[in-house]
Amino acid sequence: MPKFSANLGFLWPDRSLLARIAAAAQAGFKAVELHWPYDIPASEVHIACAEHGVRLLALNTPLGDTAKGEFGLAVLEGRQKDFETSLDQAIDYARTAGASAIHVMAGVVPVADKPRARQVFAQNLALAAQKAADFKLLLEPINQRDKPGYFYSTLEEAASLIAEIGASNLKIMFDVYHVGVSQGDIFKRLEHHLPMIGHVQIAAVPSRAEPDEGEIAYPAVFAELDRLGYSGWVGCEYKPRGATDDGLSWVKTLGVSLEQQDSIWNE
């Protein structure tokens, strides 16, 4: 059975970040992952995780100027220096907070600009792989329904970049929700891309709510991960239907457990 982490970008949204860390531990999670925690000192996040006995897995690189619609900088022509600055910020934060992985946010570009954007992305990822050699760098295709214009929405695009760059610390973030919306055929894609997968995330399709509803039978997904020998974490990156603690009834409904052995930390 997979071991589950709490994505605090969505869970317990009515609480401060440090309170969310405490809530995740109280609920039984042994690991957490973050979106953009940069308004809270990294040292405080590190202390909170240590106090509550949870591991910090990952965080995202900064988005850029959201007022201008930016959602990541890594593919934007002319913003290479800004991307490097944001990457340095993420690396410093992750190192202090104790994270082991960084999700490199690609960005939004017009379709006509994608060929050049891919070149920029590849160059930036090669730089990132060197600068963050002690971190796992995650690439996550995002479906076009949720984020129109995002640079990529298929696993094959991410896999192509990883193969081209050839850095061992570049990995796929296999978000079952995004794959389900964009492509489907979850089991075959899990099996095919398994050597490149560095992290898995889950949410219901199409609602992105708790994983006990919708089109995907998650007990079968968990069984398939076990069959394939996936030993990493499964991030619960869903948007709760109501109060987060009430929604955790999905754990019992799907017959899984959040109480992982403390000795199991390998990703």
Descriptive notes:
By secondary structure, the chain is an alpha/beta fold. It has a single domain, classed as Divalent-metal-dependent TIM barrel enzymes (TIM Barrel). The chain is 39% helix and 13% strand. The chain has 10 helices and 9 strands. It has a 9-stranded parallel sheet. The longest helix has 18 residues. The two termini are 14 Å apart.
CATH-derived topology: TIM Barrel
Biggest sheet details: 9 strands, parallel
How helical, in percent, are the residues?
A: 25-40%
Q: Round the mean pLDDT to the nearest integer and report it.
A: 95
Shape, per Cα inertia axes: globular
Q: How many separate helices?
A: 10
> In CATH's first tier, which class applies?
Alpha Beta
CATH architecture: Alpha-Beta Barrel
Through-space gap between termini: 14 Å
Global Rg: 17 Å
Low-confidence stretches: 261-267
Q: In percent terms, what proportion of residues is strand?
A: 5-15%
CATH superfamily: Divalent-metal-dependent TIM barrel enzymes
Q: Order of strands across the widest beta sheet?
A: 3-2-1-9-8-7-6-5-4
The helix/strand order is EHEHEEHEHEHEHHEHEHH
In total, the number of strands is: 9
Number of domains: 1
Topology of helices and strands:
Layout: E1 3-7, H1 17-27, E2 31-33, H2 42-52, E3 55-56, E4 58-60, H3 80-97, E5 101-103, H4 114-131, E6 136-139, H5 155-165, E7 170-175, H6 176-182, H7 186-193, E8 197-202, H8 218-228, E9 233-236, H9 244-247, H10 249-253
Parallel strand pairs: 1-2, 1-9, 2-3, 4-5, 5-6, 6-7, 7-8, 8-9
